[in-house]
């Protein structure tokens, strides 16, 4: 086992002290300055009496200081509870109930409700820094090092605990175990666009990849953050993470008069994750950007599990519908309902994975149903492996609609709808139905610049689902919308879609 987290980061920053670690507008933070920030926060946290295993929560904007205070807490071996946008007041209060303090920066402080402030646990980041002390990581491998929260796209956000052993073993932070594939990806992260939240495990891991590889994390100014295509060009970004809705937005923007002349030649990596990427969207992205495009699959509990590259698609065109092959240090298994490995390639079953950086438990519910023997984790997704090891998703095991007692996986219905050439994106939600128990209600976004909304025949979509999945899987309602609502996590917001549907029903009653 490598020296405990975050030793590898400290060594990487020390190795190139005069290289920028962060860039935010005109401000540049060198690696030696980032180390000084971390050392001062360690000193300040120590002065507050914090010791290994103590729990502290961190809720900050995307800034060098926000990152530095998280790393400082890890140097002390604390259990760091990381908050991110999207939590309700009640959820925040519940999350911080057993922590000693909630560290917030000025921007977050101004958004806190009186109920949160009344907890008397708030510590402003500007008051944390103290005298710099030597950076000697004190975490113990078996202790919980971080608690992160899921996006809540399938229900309430869940707290996911990771030990210091899992943090230490995480693929992106340990260069000495990088495979040639990881080295090739890391080489593209010379200017990584850091935005959204520091409370995302995906963003955290890829920030680690950038810093360990010697790159610079580029933070857009707050006013410019929503204008991602222009930011990519202006800041000469080489690597970026996209959700599916954001990729679709960028592809559309580049067809507009404002977007046609943007210079995105600096891009070396566009990694799309968060939800399934329709094959036609992936093809469009590869056609526009070339071999810089890849699709990642993973979960909050495990991190990235597989990667599909443009080179994979060029070599084996059918893999455009897959999510790639097992990533660095990951094993993937497909099992039937009894827990046995499926007997032949292409058989759909439950996806189980094993990776040394997986979580150890949830904060508020039993994790035993997803944690198997020998370190295996059930992703709660359905899928299959082909003979070459490419993984194909068939839907979430619990993201289902039960129609007349027949279980249909929402992902399969969405894939059938999205396969129509006039559909850019498709999402399905389950709603109660007096006759069938539940009904599938679909939302589709027509291809922009293609057939108009009224030209997309709903009956064509119904027929496509019927032919692929059977008549009982056909959505009861299919609604064309201009765009997919997006949750704070950047993922499609199915709760908002359901609210839209209910509003339409109430308006017509």
- Give the low-confidence spans: none
| Shape category | globular
How far the N terminus sits from the C terminus, by CA atoms, comes to: 63 Å
CATH T-level topology of the largest domain: Rossmann fold
Percentage beta strand: 25-35%
Strand count, sense and barrel status of the largest sheet are:
7 strands, mixed
Number of self-contained structural domains: 3
Beta strand count: 25
Kindly report the average pLDDT value.
90
Going across the biggest sheet, name each strand in turn: 6-5-3-4-7-8-18
Structural class: alpha/beta
Q: Number of DSSP helices?
A: 16
CATH homologous group name of the largest domain: ANL, N-terminal domain
CATH architecture of the largest domain: 3-Layer(aba) Sandwich
Describe this structure in words.
The chain has 509 residues and is of the alpha/beta class. The protein folds into three domains: 7-18 and 30-171, Rossmann fold, CATH 3.40.50; 220-396, Rossmann fold; 400-508, ANL, C-terminal domain (GMP Synthetase, Chain A, domain 3), CATH 3.30.300. The chain has a seven-stranded mixed beta sheet with strand order 6-5-3-4-7-8-18. The chain has a five-stranded mixed beta sheet with strand order 11-12-13-14-15. Strands 2-1-10-9 form a four-stranded mixed beta sheet. Helix 2 packs across helix 3 (64-75) and helix 14 (410-418) packs across helix 15. The longest helix is centred in the first third of the chain and has 17 residues, at 31-47. The radius of gyration is 23 Å and the shape is globular. The protein starts with 6 loop residues before the first helix and ends with a helix. The model has no long low-confidence stretch (mean pLDDT 90).
């Amino acid at each position: 086992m490598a020296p405990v987290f975050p030793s590898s980061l400290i060594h990487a920053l020390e190795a190139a002290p005069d290289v920028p670690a962060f860039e935010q507008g005109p401000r540049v933070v060198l690696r030696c300055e980032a180390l000084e920030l971390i050392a001062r926060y360690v000193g300040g946290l120590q002065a507050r009496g914090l010791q290994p295993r103590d729990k502290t929560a961190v809720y900050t904007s995307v800034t060098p200081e926000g990152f530095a205070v998280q790393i400082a807490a890890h140097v002390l071996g604390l259990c760091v509870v990381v908050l991110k946008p999207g939590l309700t007041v009640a959820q925040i209060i519940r999350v911080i109930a057993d922590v000693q303090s909630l560290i917030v920066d000025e921007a977050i402080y101004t958004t806190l409700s009186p109920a949160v402030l009344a907890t008397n646990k708030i510590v402003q980041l500007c008051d944390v820094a103290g005298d710099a002390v030597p950076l000697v990581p004190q975490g113990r491998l078996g202790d919980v090092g971080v608690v992160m929260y899921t996006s809540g796209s399938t229900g309430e956000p869940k707290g996911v605990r990771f030990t210091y052993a899992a943090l230490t073993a995480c693929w992106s932070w340990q260069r000495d175990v990088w495979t040639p594939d990881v080295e090739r990806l890391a080489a593209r992260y010379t200017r990584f666009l850091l935005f959204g939240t520091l409370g995302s495990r995906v963003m955290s891991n890829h920030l680690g990849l950038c810093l360990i590889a010697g790159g610079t994390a580029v933070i857009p100014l707050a006013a410019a953050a929503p204008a991602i295509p222009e930011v990519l060009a202006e800041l000469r970004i080489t690597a970026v993470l996209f959700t599916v809705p954001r990729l679709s937005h960028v592809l559309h923007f580049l067809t507009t008069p404002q977007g046609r002349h943007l210079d995105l030649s600096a891009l070396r990596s566009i990694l799309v994750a968060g939800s399934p990427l329709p094959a036609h969207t992936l093809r469009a992205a590869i056609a526009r950007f070339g071999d810089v495009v890849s699709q990642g699959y993973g979960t909050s509990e495990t991190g990235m599990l597989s990667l599909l590259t443009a080179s994979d698609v060029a070599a084996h065109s059918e893999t455009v519908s897959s999510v790639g092959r097992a990533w660095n240090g990951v094993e993937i298994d497909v099992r039937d309902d009894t827990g046995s490995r499926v007997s032949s390639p292409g058989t759909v079953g439950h996806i189980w994975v094993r990776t040394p950086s997986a979580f150890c438990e949830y904060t508020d519910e039993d994790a035993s149903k997803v944690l198997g023997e020998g370190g295996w984790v059930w992703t709660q997704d359905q899928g299959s492996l082909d003979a070459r090891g490419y993984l194909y998703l068939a839907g979430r095991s619990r993201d289902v609609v039960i129609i007349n007692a027949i279980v249909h996986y929402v992902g399969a219905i969405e894939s059938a709808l999205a396969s129509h050439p006039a559909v850019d994106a498709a999402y399905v939600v389950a709603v109660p139905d007096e006759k069938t128990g539940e009904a599938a209600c679909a939302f589709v976004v027509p291809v922009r610049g293609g057939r108009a909304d009224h030209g997309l025949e709903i009956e064509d979509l119904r027929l496509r689902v019927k032919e692929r999945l059977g008549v009982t899987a056909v959505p009861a309602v299919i609604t064309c919308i201009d765009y997919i609502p997006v949750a704070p996590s950047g993922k499609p917001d199915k709760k908002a879609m359901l609210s839209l549907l209910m509003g339409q029903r109430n308006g017509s009653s």
